[in-house]
Design goal:
2 domains, alpha+beta, YefM-like fold
Length: about 120
């Protein structure tokens, strides 16, 4: 059951990546003149707003939540690249049961440390 839920979450995330939204673009002067509007927009949409100066891209404004999510996803991407290189360097493979058992052991050990 948990595997199905995780799979569904991954598929939803993939769909969001594959179906990009139209970026919000505003002039940089709006940052000064309409700051509260921009703040509301970035929090409501949880997407960055691209600011232009003289018709060219100048800055990106995003909510702290969106920034942290972006940072988290970047860290995951780095870990996946590391795993890819590690997998290419060895022929050793693990079964699903081996991985799940090891994860459960790690969780138990972390719980004991905190408790």
């Amino acid at each position: 059951m948990t595997t199905i839920i995780i799979y569904a979450i991954i598929m939803i995330d993939i769909q969001e990546v594959l179906m990009p939204t139209v970026p919000m673009i505003r002039p940089v002067s709006d940052l000064r003149n309409k700051f509260s509007d921009i703040s509301k927009e970035v929090h409501k949409a949880n997407e960055p707003i691209f600011l232009t100066k003289n018709g060219r891209g100048d800055m990106v404004v995003m909510s702290l939540d969106a920034y942290e999510q972006n940072l988290f996803e970047s860290q995951i991407y780095v870990k996946l690249k590391e795993a890819k290189y590690q997998a290419a360097s060895t022929k050793k493979r693990y079964t699903h049961d081996e991985v799940m058992t090891e994860l459960q052991n790690v969780i138990k050990n972390e719980t004991k440390k905190k408790g």
